[in-house]
Amino acid sequence: MEKFTLIGKNMKRIDTAAKATGEAIFSADLTLPRMLIGKALRSPYPHARIVAIDTSKAERLPGVKAVITAQDMCGDKWGVFRYTQDQQFLPTEKVRYMGEEVAAVAAIDEDTALQALKLIDVQYEALPSVFTIDDAIAAGAPQLHDAYPNNINVHVKIDVGDIEKGFNESYLVREDTFSAPEDAYFQGEPYAVVAQFDQAGNLEIWMPNAGPHMKAKPLSNVLKIPLNKVRVRKITIGGAFGGRSEISPADVICAFLARKAHRPVKIVYTREENTVATRQAHALVTKIKTGVDREGKVLARDITCHMDGGAYSSTGPIATSVPFLCMEQAYRMDNVRYNGYRILTNKPIRGMYRVHGRAFACGIDIQLDMIGAALGIDPLTMRLRNARQTGDYTPTKSYVASCGMTESIVKAGEKSGWKEKFGKLPPYHGIGIGCNSVQTGFPMGIRGGSQAFIKLNEDGGITVITGIVDNGQGNDNMVVQIAAEELGLTPDDVQLISADTEVTPSDPGSYAMCETFIGGNAVRLAAQDVKKKLFRIVAGEFGIGVDNLTARDRKIFVTENPEKSMSIAKAVRIALSRNESISGEGSYWPNVDPKREWVKNPYGQLSETFSFGTVIAEVKVDPETGQVEVLEVTAAQDVGFALNPQVIEGQFEGGVAMGGQGGMLSEFLQWHEGRVLNPTQFGYLVPLAIDMPKINNIIVETIDPNGPYGAKEAGMSVAMSAAQAYCGAISNAVGVYFHDYPITPDKIVKAIEEKKQKENAEVPG
Amino acid sequence: MEKFTLIGKNMKRIDTAAKATGEAIFSADLTLPRMLIGKALRSPYPHARIVAIDTSKAERLPGVKAVITAQDMCGDKWGVFRYTQDQQFLPTEKVRYMGEEVAAVAAIDEDTALQALKLIDVQYEALPSVFTIDDAIAAGAPQLHDAYPNNINVHVKIDVGDIEKGFNESYLVREDTFSAPEDAYFQGEPYAVVAQFDQAGNLEIWMPNAGPHMKAKPLSNVLKIPLNKVRVRKITIGGAFGGRSEISPADVICAFLARKAHRPVKIVYTREENTVATRQAHALVTKIKTGVDREGKVLARDITCHMDGGAYSSTGPIATSVPFLCMEQAYRMDNVRYNGYRILTNKPIRGMYRVHGRAFACGIDIQLDMIGAALGIDPLTMRLRNARQTGDYTPTKSYVASCGMTESIVKAGEKSGWKEKFGKLPPYHGIGIGCNSVQTGFPMGIRGGSQAFIKLNEDGGITVITGIVDNGQGNDNMVVQIAAEELGLTPDDVQLISADTEVTPSDPGSYAMCETFIGGNAVRLAAQDVKKKLFRIVAGEFGIGVDNLTARDRKIFVTENPEKSMSIAKAVRIALSRNESISGEGSYWPNVDPKREWVKNPYGQLSETFSFGTVIAEVKVDPETGQVEVLEVTAAQDVGFALNPQVIEGQFEGGVAMGGQGGMLSEFLQWHEGRVLNPTQFGYLVPLAIDMPKINNIIVETIDPNGPYGAKEAGMSVAMSAAQAYCGAISNAVGVYFHDYPITPDKIVKAIEEKKQKENAEVPG
């Protein structure tokens, strides 16, 4: 008999039918009786003092039901940390980026709301602005916030081992600088919120989110109502990628409008607003100095990273650590120094991102290639020699309980034909490799654990109640699969109630794909709790011990004698006839160091587990046009255990699309004096299905000792490694190491030209 | 320091604002996108064979989205018990009452739906009908169901002690027959249902109910989908009174229409449909033979009761027991025989009712008055001599753990000035007394227990999750009050999630006011579970034992040293910082005999507790018009413990309105050959606020050993006793004992005339 009936096998996602038929309701689809349409007035200045706001004309416009300004919000400032509380959702004194919310209206329809916005008279006094990291930290630069001298928002400092000794002992030392502009999440679903208040002051709110409880807390704070009066409700979510992690001004504005108008309010962002007024990814400049021994093993590394954070902290301070943490997990670094600076500029706010730090990760990786080239060591071997291993501690003191880094490198190498290809491909053909890692079992904020309830019915069906949110990756499916497996049921026997802050228990959210590890463990424990109770009933009826029973096929049977069985439905009815109900509870808190913090104390166990991925990409470059044709991508990742291979492969492919195909070839935001020039899909080039190359998926399993059935995150390590692999492959094809990302056709053509000029110059005579 | 901060005190109901402002959404107010309007085609015959149904014309009418007949329902029959499964929600072979559902349509609006009904061609073959109990049991009567020979649906037989010996030893024996026609619930909210299915075959349904789980089970059965795919959702409910206890054809029809149309469907009953096609109360004929000793103590009682059940079983078989059970609880009856027959007629279906059996209860009580008059014992003393006492067993073997019957009689007597008034009032003035009891801690069906969860937030607020339903009596309030009291919070600190079959745990429902006893206990246990966990945290911090702590004012303090305290919010945050969440669970199953059953085995512990009430009414009758002016009513009830006196008084007053003012003065259904002649408020006279007399409320507390804080049911014992008191008072005023109820002006005038004629005849001429 197989060990499992459901897990480890492909299972059709439970949300497929609803999404395919359009039945699934996203926030923008939601319509409530008497609902108004909300719109925000946005600053036309990147930096300006607000002298006066006159909303009287807008208020008098028929159909306008509420107008709000900073006055309605008591001047409160929000931030993820106590020391980064710098953002007013409607500012009182000044605006700090073009597109910042200044006022908002709720009206009976969109036309009226837009007309009302035009009637709001805001007097600004323009202030000098800064738009680049260099300008922002230059002496005498305009300052965005009093609290952040020189516009330095946060400084993360990590210093481990003896870096000077490491460099002194190095056989070769290289120093390079890498850079990349901002990229955008470009979720399928532009941001949308619906909010309503009842007489008793209870807020119901629907919006895309990566953790409903993480939305509820700031809403509770800023609305000054208790947490249990904020109900963030379940809704279908069209993608997150890190960009739905935190409170959005739209959430707060929508709630304030609804409270003031005494009617439900819906705000739906335009694509432009979704790009400008929700968080996007940071621009980075990273200086990396690496020293290695003769075998290419890294002995010392000194990294300085400057990130363009835009106008406010938001979740950016976390993002200041993450690129470093991912790389310190992927590669051993015994002597390392990291100085990460987040710099404020008069641009929209930057936050967490699924593919953290292109310039950082690609820099670390491409520099390994350069060093390898100098030492005559191929990139794959360079990575094997530096790969993280099970049982290691990372520089910031996380124990690594399971690690498939090496296996993912070896398997990706074999599948891609690395040995046969590297250095042997025709001109303008190239192959590249990237490795990355992600923390996949860590809590966010004070509610870091997940709890699940399971109820049983007398027909043997169950209902799982959990705070886990699915924002596209298939978490709902994961929950159903685990609960059904554990209790010997089919997915159809499981009803799911999830992601509603009031009806479901707390859960930390789907950040960094922690839901499988944290939430999945909680669901499994709840199912085991239920199973234990069922077994007790059946064991009593059969007069045997509970250890001799197995749950499968909706039955509980004697393991040694499978003919002897009782249906789960019957066991429940027996319990009920004895005046007992059957329900179960499970809680899981990841085993991490509660004192560790993202900025101020980045030491201690960060996450209970980590995923590790390798991507190898093979490309062909057209030297005339600079166009890159991706011939084949091989994505290998240590997912711990593959609960649902089909979903994991989808995550891998999505990762390649996001990190590689989009992130390294075409996606970046263009600017003019703080204005985004390409906020829509007509200028910001997100790859389409037709753009995608052939992808080989390799699932590496390490059976994490603490993951549910050994599982951990799936796909994010691939997304990040893909950028690095694409970078390496193009560099390999062109024969030039690129330092600035994404590697767009113009950069390729220019690099080829420069290389030719250089080669010509070197040719004597 | 007072023992309690909230309970035992008046607390404003949490639903008041929403109901007063119209914010509260009842099922009929609910509007869903793409929602259709459903309508049922009803039989114009009281009894007829269905020869053929042609729906083709209706189906072709533009705007009609679904038409259903019996064919869509597989011929399934429903019943509360296995042996009473006799009702098809759309019948295949014949209709058995005028108004029975035959087919149904869902269309884009009401006009189209009504037009479509007219296009459905049903060919009937009329059958002979029976409309009265006597006709139905007569030899050769038309038979409604093959399964019930002689139209006897059920026969409840109880025989305790030695009745013959009792009669033989009696000093006085009387036999009387009492009767009453049907009365209607006349809820403020006519029946309404909204149903929708999703792609995955999950049903969401909203309707008035007295227990959402009790609705879900039959829907699961008849729709042939698992229980966890039936989600009966929370909605505001406008009264139940026993009439929202079971599945309604409207629920089933609405769900079938929604499934067939693939769109949401709403059915809203007209007032006529609410009276005819939802359950109402039985007509009764009761023969009572009572034997007493010289002191008026009952030695033997033989009761035969015939109830007109209408066309199907429904919950009627339960109602065949209830009038007897209430009276056996109120008064001691050591030697008693009860034969209860439920008879089927071609009239609408009868079910459970808040004021069970006017003819039964008034008969028992007014006969005591007659016997007392013969013995020279006043009615109040007659009741004291026969009153149930704590520690008794009822004839059907229920132990009575707490009983305030005597105290309620004594206190009502004192307050009403009984001693000064009885026998001393001017002509056509009268005073009367009635006593009754109700089982208030018993399970309905297999899911007889209640479970509650409580979640704590880091700001110290809580959310209570319970299956308890509030259908007007204030159960939501009761839950909030108990949870807040137990944890030392204010009602505003408590959020309530309730009465939704999927998001809340199971609960037996609000039948016979069991929610306070069963659900209230579960909520209290859940709160105590939470409190224990909080105390453990605080005790650890303070270095003291958990037994030395008290929760009050949102704090936990050292009982002996109240200055030393910690806020609950802080205790939660300490727990969270230790990677523990704080939540609690509580379950309560009433301690009853699971083998006891309503019809087939009415012996064993019926209910864990019982309430006891006395009502005394004082009236003035206009001998010319027969109009009754109620001068004053005194309502006393043993509620165990008064959790919220204000709500209890409201329940007492509602009970007097329903049982006395309406039930004994004006409310009854009028018939012509199976047709209800007065289905609306223009013919069926429900008392208005302006009709109500002065009411003295007396709360008697016995602190039930098992109730939450000693509490049990409040109001139902008053509702029933009120009918009896009004009957006694009018009889006392007129000088004639009435045998047929309600006592309408025409009956009074006739009684006065007959009495005068009799007196004139007796006067020697």
Quaternary organisation: homodimer
**Beginning-to-end CA distance, first to last residue of chain A:** 77 Å
Query: Can you tell me the residue ranges of chain A where pLDDT is under 50 for at least 5 consecutive residues?
Result: none
Task: Kindly name the structural category of chain A.
Answer: alpha+beta
Shape of chain A: globular
- Let me know the average pLDDT of chain A: 96
Question: If you had to describe this structure to a student in words, what would you say it looks like?
Answer:
The structure is a homodimer of 765-residue chains. Chain A is of the alpha+beta class. Chain A folds into three domains: 27-127 and 189-238 and 244-276, Aldehyde Oxidoreductase, domain 3 (Alpha-Beta Complex); 283-442 and 596-757, Aldehyde oxidase/xanthine dehydrogenase, molybdopterin binding domain (Aldehyde Oxidoreductase, domain 4, 2-Layer Sandwich), CATH 3.30.365.10; 444-588, Aldehyde Oxidoreductase, domain 4, CATH 3.30.365. Chain A is built from 19 helices and 28 strands. In chain A, a hairpin with a 5-residue loop joins strand 13 and strand 14 (298-308). At the A-B interface, helix 1, strand 17, strand 18, strand 19 and helix 16 of A face helix 1, strand 17, strand 18, strand 19 and helix 17 of B.
